């Protein structure tokens, strides 16, 4: 086995301390006790497909995971599962969040939204946040640096053309060892602003990181990168994780409610947090699971001091209270 070698341009120190025992009060607007971020992952049309030159259909996050992958052959069952998400599941969740006047963040795979631009248009019209979930929903681990930069640029340009603005936030999910450096680097090269990134699961509140590409800049010139942690536990993808996922919608609701109640109580005790709920059009958009999601939305809508916000709103509120300082989380 080859020993790991550190490339200072793409290497980040691990942090096991975070905000420590004292924690951090993010000082949410209007003294909110908790910030809740609903995220809809829009991947349908950007997944692996023989028609996109991938040589196989998508194998991940599908209802029926059985059977070997079909090489150089379309899998119409898989394709139709994903199409359900864009045709029905997304709109079911979209209507509900609008009904409750709650803003969500769309993790938009650019190639997917290109196939259904109405999704981006309606999100913008209703005030929801369209962030980038990369140009395609594929594995980027083995991409060369130049190829990944090309895809990052395509993702930014595509969403800007569809929404009228460059995506203010970025989440890969299938990132490479270089992604944390490359995404803010490409934004800077394009003259666009990256407000936040979410390929981290390390905390319950945002935090700043230093960028290796800014090592030679002065403290005043350096911008850093604000990390807004995502969630794998409060996430409907666990319906498709055999053995350790949600067995039924009741389990999904119970988990969301437990997480909310714990964080809400911490907020009541003077230490507010943020909670992220990860959703997928073809998963939580299915009627049986959607009922549990709606039950949770209704539950938190009756609580006082709950701030349901987009990830950009959360990032901007945090930045206002805790602007970037080199070497500091906040």
UniProtKB/TrEMBL annotation:
It holds the Pfam family Polysacc_deac_1. GO terms for molecular function: hydrolase activity, acting on carbon-nitrogen (but not peptide) bonds. GO terms for biological process: carbohydrate metabolic process. Residues 76-309 form the NodB homology domain. InterPro entries: Glyco_hydro/deAcase_b/a-brl (IPR011330), NODB_dom (IPR002509). It comes from the Eukaryota. This is Polysaccharide deacetylase.
């Amino acid at each position: 086995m080859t020993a790991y070698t550190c490339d200072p341009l793409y290497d980040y120190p691990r942090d096991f301390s975070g905000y420590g025992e004292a924690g951090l009060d993010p000082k949410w607007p209007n003294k909110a006790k908790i910030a809740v971020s609903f995220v809809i992952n829009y991947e349908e049309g950007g997944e692996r497909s023989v028609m996109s030159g991938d040589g196989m259909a998508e194998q991940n996050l599908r209802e029926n995971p059985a059977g070997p992958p079909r090489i150089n052959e379309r899998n119409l069952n898989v394709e139709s599962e994903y199409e359900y998400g864009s045709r029905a599941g997304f709109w079911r969740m979209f209507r509900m969040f609008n009904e409750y006047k709650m803003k969500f963040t769309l993790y938009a795979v650019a190639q997917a939204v290109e196939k259904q631009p109405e999704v981006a248009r309606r999100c913008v019209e209703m005030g929801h946040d369209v962030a980038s979930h990369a140009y395609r929903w594929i594995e980027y681990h083995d991409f060369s640096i130049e190829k990944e930069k090309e895809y990052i640029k395509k993702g930014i340009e595509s969403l800007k053309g569809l929404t009228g603005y460059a995506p203010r936030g970025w989440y890969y999910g299938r990132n490479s060892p270089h992604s944390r450096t490359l995404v803010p680097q490409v934004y800077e090269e394009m003259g666009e602003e990256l407000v936040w990134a979410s390929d981290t699961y390390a905390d319950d509140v945002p935090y700043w990181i230093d960028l290796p590409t800014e090592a030679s800049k002065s403290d005043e010139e350096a911008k850093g990168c604000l990390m807004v942690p995502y969630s794998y536990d409060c996430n409907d993808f666990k319906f498709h994780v055999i053995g350790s996922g949600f067995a039924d919608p009741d389990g999904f609701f119970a988990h969301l409610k437990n997480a909310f109640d714990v964080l809400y109580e911490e907020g009541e005790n003077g230490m507010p947090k943020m909670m992220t709920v990860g959703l997928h059009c073809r998963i939580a958009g299915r009627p049986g699971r959607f009922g549990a999601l709606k039950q949770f939305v209704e539950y938190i809508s009756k609580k006082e001091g709950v701030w349901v916000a987009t990830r950009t709103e959360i990032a901007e509120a945090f930045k206002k209270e805790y602007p970037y300082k080199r070497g500091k989380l906040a």
